[in-house]
Amino acid sequence: MYLNNFEYFAPETPGEALDLVARMGNKAKVLAGGTDLLIMMKEKMIQPEYLIDINNVKEFKGISYEPGKGAVIGAATKISEVEHSPVIRDKYFALHQAAGELGSAQVRAMATIGGNSCHASPAAETPTPLVAFGAKIVISSVSGDRELPLEEFILGNRKNALAEGELLTQFILPEPAPKSASRYWYIGLRDAMEIDAVNMAVNMVLENDGRTVKDLRLVMGSVSPRPLVSVEVPGILVGKEFNSELVEKAAQAAAGEAKPISDIRASAEYRREVTAVLARRLLQQAFDAAREV
Amino acid sequence: MKQLIELTINNRVYEVPVSPKDLLADVIRDKVGLTGTKKGCGQGDCGACTVLIDGNPVLSCLTLAIACQGRKITTIEGLVAEDGQLHPIQQAYVDHGAVQCGFCTPGMILTSKALLDRNPKPSEEEIKRGISGNICRCTGYKKIVEAIFAAGETISTEGVK
Ligand SMILES: Cc1cc2nc3c(=O)[nH]c(=O)nc-3n(C[C@H](O)[C@H](O)[C@H](O)COP(=O)(O)OP(=O)(O)OC[C@H]3O[C@@H](n4cnc5c(N)ncnc54)[C@H](O)[C@@H]3O)c2cc1C
Ligand code: FES
Ligand code: FES
Q1: Of A84, A149, A150, A255, whose CB has the highest number of CB atoms within 10 Å?
Q2: Domain encompassing residue B24
Q3: What's B67's domain CATH number?
């Protein structure tokens, strides 16, 4: 349970951080909350020569919101800050819910939102709602910034689209549409400190009549190597008046799209079943909430 | 390569030689000599190693000591007043029989403190969620939940921090 020897760097500006990342390349690992990284090091899955701690770079942290434009969340922002942010609760409820369900109070105080997407566990909490909001990420390096939709960044279990010398620095969340609402939930073996068997987020926009679905994104986690954006569910519901028959059809379609595996946490069959359960619940909850907006 | 760093623990500054790989839990116990902080699983699951850093509950088994320079660390030893009087949360644990073997207690109390600092009047559900990262193998949690509830009452009526 001990770590290998490494050299430690704690840059204080974005420029210093990017320089270090560029110089040390693959021999270095970025240290954010350490809640995944230090465990992988303790288990000797990786033995980096350098750690670049990004927690002292204040430009990489914090949540800002501009009405009409949306929110920007720094990659090194702690999950607990996301969980307790009034703006996230108000405008991006599904993300507020997911942040509150990640690990324990201690893990949330340490873990960062950037680390959650970079580690790219298929069961991760926050990528699912972030993808449902159509979040983009900013990837920075000494040669500049590039943007990517989050679903193109997460490539599979522990694989992301970062090239050598690059850092994930921001999440950009578009302003929620009028008459829209989002909901997140998960199913695991128990309530607390559980790795999700399935998680899901729904982001729904209604027409002014408060009945017709104008737009919809349903994203599933833990049933595929990366967040799975449903194609069939919007096909069934968008442009239609919301009703329980269509919800049932949509829930079955989501279960059909899921590509779960069997592992120690659940069988593929069970995961498929609860995918339908979650879809049914979340579609209804998002619809009810969107009518109230 | 060891280097000298300064750690501020319970309002006292300690100068300790560390390697970058040294974990805060080990440094607090073995180099500083404050053995109230416990190490259980070493991988984030049990919460026995919880300390407060700038008021936030943090797992010292997954924190590099070298990364804590300039931060304010509080361990269980730091909750007792100078005259030896127990903190209201500690007193509530005693009064409610929330301590058996005691291994989980330091981490549990610091997690309780972080919870009550944010929310002095938590519901039973909020308390259970708040301590979900702390495992106790003895008490069955019931008395711990009662103690935290009572401590919250004391703190909000007496205004103690
Ligand atoms: C007890 C416990 C319970 C947990 N429960 C959950 C849970 O319920 N749900 C869940 O989703 N996760 C859970 N996790 C996993 C973990 O806490 C999260 O994935 C967390 O968000 C990781 O963030 P971090 O800041 O700690 O990342 P780190 O461990 O610091 O980093 C993870 C990886 O990402 C890289 N990285 C981090 N930030 C950047 C960046 N900005 N740019 C480039 N690379 C970067 C690191 O180099 C490393 O490879 C749990 C972990 C523990 C220990
Ligand atoms: S010893 Fe740190 S969480 Fe168990
Ligand atoms: S009192 Fe023994 S583990 Fe909690």
Answers
A1: A150
A2: 3-78
A3: 3.10.20.30
